[in-house]
Task: structure prediction
Amino acid sequence: MKLKLKIWRQKNANDKGKLVDYDIDGVSGDMSFLEMLDVLNTQLIEKGEEPVAFDHDCREGICGTCSLFINGEAHGPDRLVTTCQLHMRKFNDGDTIYIEPFRAKAFPVVKDLVVDRSAFDRIQHAGGYISVNTSGNTQDANAIPINKEHADKAFDAATCIGCGACVATCKNSSAMLFVSAKVSQFALLPQGKVEAKQRVLNMVEQMDKEGFGNCTNTGACEVECPKGISLENIARMNREYLAASFTSNT
Amino acid sequence: MTVLNSRVPEGPLADKWTNHKNKINLVNPANKRLIDVIVVGTGLAGGSAAATLAELGYNVKAFCYQDSPRRAHSIAAQGGINAAKNYQGDGDSTYRLFYDTVKGGDYRSREENVYRLAEVSANIIDQCVAQGVPFARDYGGLLDNRSFGGVLVSRTFYAKGQTGQQLLLGCYSAMNRQIARGKIAMYNRHEMMELVIVDGKARGIIARNLVTGEIERHSAHAVVIASGGYGNVFYLSTNAMGSNVSAAWKVHKKGAFFANPCFTQIHPTCIPVSGDHQSKLTLMSESLRNDGRIWVPKKMEDVKAIREGRLKPTQIAEEDRDYYLERRYPAFGNLVPRDVASRAAKERCDAGYGVNATGEAVYLDFASAIQRYGKEQAHIHGLDENDKDLVKKLGTEVVKSKYGNLFQMYEKIVDQNPYETPMMIYPAVHYTMGGVWVDYNLMTTIPGLYAIGEANFSDHGANRLGASALMQGLADGYFVLPYTIGDYLSADIRTGKIPTNLPEFDAAENAVKEQINGFVNNKGSKSVDYFHKRLGKVMWDKVGMARNAEGLKQAIEEIRAIREEFWKDVRVPGAANEYNEELAKAGRVADFLELGELFAIDALHREESCGGHFREEYQTAEGEALRRPEFQYVAAWEYTGNPGEAIMHKEPLEYKNIEVKERSYK
Ligand SMILES: Cc1cc2nc3c(=O)[nH]c(=O)nc-3n(C[C@H](O)[C@H](O)[C@H](O)COP(=O)(O)OP(=O)(O)OC[C@H]3O[C@@H](n4cnc5c(N)ncnc54)[C@H](O)[C@@H]3O)c2cc1C
Ligand code: SF4
Ligand code: FES
Result:
């Protein structure tokens, strides 16, 4: 395949940045999208130009490092995959592909396609944990049976990889899907219930501080989420938040 | 050559750890506040260690090269974590887990460390559940288990095919709690470049901020290396793109011995290579061997027809299939250990029975499992067990619930539906049992420098059993290191902060800057990857699944030549003081090019076959690994200025609680 790439190049956070055209040939359908960019980068390096910076690590859809807004969609046209799992067989010979970073006020660009998602970490610092010491002096793992349905739902919520596609997709740059996934995971488990109120209040407060927008229930996040995190989690978080706001005296 | 002292405590095996804990020095809580510890790496090992040390009161500085600790490569672990809980009542015990691990490692691990690992394993599960790790459960609400290779009990806890993710997020949450308390200072997108030794003790590191390019000095009273494995020396492996040996190699060059580098695990079930563009290989979890059956056609004409697309695997009759693991190893069948399964796949493919265009693939087939589960479900629900479509539908649902994400991953990569046609798999480099040598306290040969998780050589001998790496990482980080490090740090309560303006910091920083400037000013013509790929090919062809003296000698020469060319001709675009991935990669590949040589030297010296190390000269008449008693030791290498001149030190291995036998899975 022969392709025309229009790639966002931006030297650093202060640079304005622009789309730059690249032609690439000999792309096979079995290549992953990032392998296609590897080929381009090798060519650029050998020509003495600077390669395109993009984030990636595991290349199997689990670490959440890769990003990219491809032809206007977070993680590209395929569903339930990350960019590193997207394969070139989803494109056709002669296609023009726009490749841009995940954009949001809370995700400033570091370089080219690399963005800073540390706002997500700070939301987790605010309450994304159960306050148990790691001494091992806990009760036996089977002491509290957990209803399978709740356990499975908690697991589904916990599969969020923290990639930020939900934010990049949302017209308001809301982080509700991401935050609600963590809140739900713990709210569904008996171990997490103890601190549930404080957790939701703290995490939401930090989310607002980081400059993420409000949720207006458009649901675009769920569509683009590579892990299929459900909007049900947002509804659950809203319930948790309301309940906590009414009863909390802090 | 000296004989190494592993500092194993006295007493009967089962009491050693408890006795040791009772005797070692402690640091009182007020004094812990005066002590700083650096942890390099935030995977299961580093993340759990950082959280626990911080909780105990030490001031922790943690480093990772990713943009968040949650992205460490432990996140990718799929299948599960072992623990001797015996929830299934199938005869499991601490001793049995210990026994399986030592045997699985082909009697090349330290008995006492493995026993301790088995002993603390049960606690890990308790801990993780308390942290909110959503392990799989049965309908009664209790924890579920599955089986992994090389064992006859079900002791593996799992969270679908995302066990590593869930465990790592558990560590990450424990870290977050300490970050919020100000007890962990987290340095994301930072790479450790050098170790700083002051008066013979590890006292700090030099790190590069990967965003700004700034070179930073960090001091501490002790340094912990938890930087993961070095499988990427093969270029293609199941490791993440950034996984590297650099932190471990840098400490090796400063005096830490590197043990058994040639003990590397080639995992039997990975997606085969599809072309030259390939950047990494994807694992299909070993848990799939619980239900998948591995086979190739019996007849060469069928192989040809399949390769030419004239025949589909589903069209081959049962009697024309060679389920070679079930044939050769009836007792363990598809669940033999990884080294055995990988070699058996290679044997069939070398004999010409590989089922894809490159001839390097075998089938992993779920059709029987779908049938079996489908019938069971039909029976449970009182439906017609002979309705083929219904049985298939019900069976598919069960398989989907167990392995759904793995099947999806396979389909995305290969573009075939594994519910309908068997998966194609081939062995790939996956895990490194070798690593930085540590004693019973997990301290390296440099005082105050510790190594934990995959970065150390520790508990898996010559072959690691599935679901044991996660167990080891968390055991080291939550339950072992936090105790043993106190013994060392108790001498440091009056030391005060370690200043970073010492001449040792100057020297280390200058060395780092010199290397970086060398790279960005080198006017070479080839990319870093070009050299990395060449190194990988030599490693795979000559230091891979089967090795011989001739090939290893050639590999050593070839690696030296690539290394020389690399320094002359590598091209690193961009500048030192900015985000520059090529620069980061160049430093990592430079270290791989040195490690690769030591790896081959170690493989050449070890004139026996054991676990993942298979020397063609040493095999039984049936083609199984031939272990030799004279090699019952750990080879720990000391750096003396050049990997080719490393000096070997031995740690003899004694088995007082297990009889050393020929490993048989028949
Ligand atoms: C695909 C896959 C599946 C697996 N499945 C299983 C399984 O089911 N069960 C099982 O038991 N094991 C499994 N394993 C093995 C297991 O996941 C690993 O051995 C284990 O997670 C390693 O943990 P770790 O903490 O030692 O290192 P890692 O998780 O690799 O973490 C390394 C850390 O070090 C940091 N780092 C590295 N170099 C530097 C540097 N120079 N400077 C700063 N920081 C650095 C990284 O940023 C990272 O934080 C699997 C492995 C793979 C690859
Ligand atoms: S909710 Fe989905 S899209 Fe958002 S961070 Fe998590 S995995 Fe990514
Ligand atoms: S690189 Fe890890 S999810 Fe894409």
